[in-house]
Amino acid sequence: MGNITLSIPEELQKKMKKHSDIRWSEVIRKTIQRRIEDLELLDSLTTRSELTQEGALEISKKIDASVAKKLGLVR
Question: Domain extents for the chain?
């Protein structure tokens, strides 16, 4: 198993010490695992997607224009 060393602000460390019953390494391990699972799902979805960068930009511009119109920022 690999190891990670990280630095945390002193204030955060004080707060963590107040909850010494919690296994913080397990909390971090589970958080990393969830993030990896989310990224793998995202990779899976985007790998099968036929949406191009240009297509995404076009959709984004249309959404921005629609929102601006609804907010009365443009006519």
Answer: 10-70
